[in-house]
Amino acid sequence: DQQVKQNSPSLSVQEGRISILNCDYTNSMFDYFLWYKKYPAEGPTFLISISSIKDKNEDGRFTVFLNKSAKHLSLHIVPSQPGDSAVYFCAASVGGGSQGNLIFGKGTKLSVKP
Amino acid sequence: EAGVAQSPRYKIIEKRQSVAFWCNPISGHATLYWYQQILGQGPKLLIQFQNNGVVDDSQLPKDRFSAERLKGVDSTLKIQPAKLEDSAVYLCASSFYALEETQYFGPGTRLLVL
């Protein structure tokens, strides 16, 4: 039973446009959410996170939105750049990453075309 | 600052053989994690160490997998005997304890069991 779901395996956008990656979760105990980015042959790298007490967190071109009632979060990348092409994983935990397991989704492969 | 180091990067073995992976976390990071990432899936936590003690090994197949972190720094993960379904990327991650949510991942070891 998948607790964190990324229903779109892939997404293709044009350079300069907005990329929106979606993630749904089922466990209402999750209180911390993260996005990781992964290039081929490398480990995932942390991108941005959000606590359940917030509904939005922004870091440069990246913004994560959290809708607790819908158990849904999304990552917005504006403007998208070719270097953003990677696999993006949504992850969730109870009690923060160090105190709780990170539960990952299956990932969404983003392709940004020049 | 040096990142999480893992070796080997690639390993090919036959089923029923043994294999070991090594991880050296970021200096000062008390928490160390081993994840298994099967192709097309997100990383799944196998075991979490806090210094040299095990915090969570509930998803570690203990009949064939073992892990240790004897001096609270580097760690080894062993599979004995390996099965075909163990083919995956094994990722090591570390984080600084106490309210640090971000886990920093190494490049992973890609294991192929034939």
* Parts with pLDDT < 50 across at least 5 consecutive residues of chain A: none
State the assembly state of the protein chains.
heterodimer
Biggest sheet overview of chain A: 6 strands, mixed
Q: Please give the alpha-carbon distance between the first and last residues of chain A.
A: 38 Å
Q: What structural class do helix, strand and pairing data of chain A support? A: mainly beta
Radius of gyration of chain B: 13 Å
Keywords for this entry:
heterodimer, A: mainly beta, six-stranded mixed sheet, five-stranded antiparallel sheet, 11 strands, B: 114 residues, mainly beta, seven-stranded mixed sheet, globular
Polypeptide structure, described:
The complex is a heterodimer of chains A (114) and B (114). Chain A has 114 residues and is an all-beta fold. In chain A, 0% of the residues lie in helices and 53% in strands. In chain A, strands 2, 4, 5, 9, 10 and 11 form a six-stranded mixed beta sheet that branches. Chain A starts with a strand and ends with a strand. The model of chain A has no long low-confidence stretch (mean pLDDT 93). Chain B has 114 residues and is mainly β. In chain B, the strands form two sheets. In chain B, strands 2, 4, 5, 6, 9, 10 and 11 form a seven-stranded mixed beta sheet that branches. In chain B, strands 1-3-8-7 form a four-stranded antiparallel beta sheet, with no helix packed on it. Chain B starts with a strand and ends with a strand. The interface between A and B is medium-sized, with 23 and 26 residues.
